[in-house]
Design a protein that fits this description.
There is one protein chain. This protein is of the alpha+beta class and 94 residues long. The chain is built from three helices and four strands. A four-stranded mixed beta sheet has the order 2-1-3-4, with helices on one face. A hairpin with a 5-residue loop joins strand 3 and strand 4. Helix 2 crosses helix 3. The longest helix is centred in the middle third of the chain and has 17 residues. It is globular, with a radius of gyration of 12 Å. The two termini are 16 Å apart.
Amino acid sequence: MAWRSQLSTHLKELRIHLCQTSPSSASTRDFIIRNYKDLKMLNPRLPILIRECSGIQPRLWARYQFGVEKSIPLDGLAEPEITAKLKELVLKFI
């Protein structure tokens, strides 16, 4: 899990979009509950933004240098799969 401490090295911002009530966002909500504290503790200067909006599909956004952004849909993914997708976004530009 050493890659978790490298978030702020490779990312400028991490955003998670989700719905507060929809079943498709349930695993994303669980991911946030279980992982936000550790991610923020390891990367205190990295903006980790949680954006809730009714009726949207969950999505993970990563912003890199020079405004480059990548996103991955999280609809239907379990919590370990969301962790794997985040790791993929972090390690993509190493």
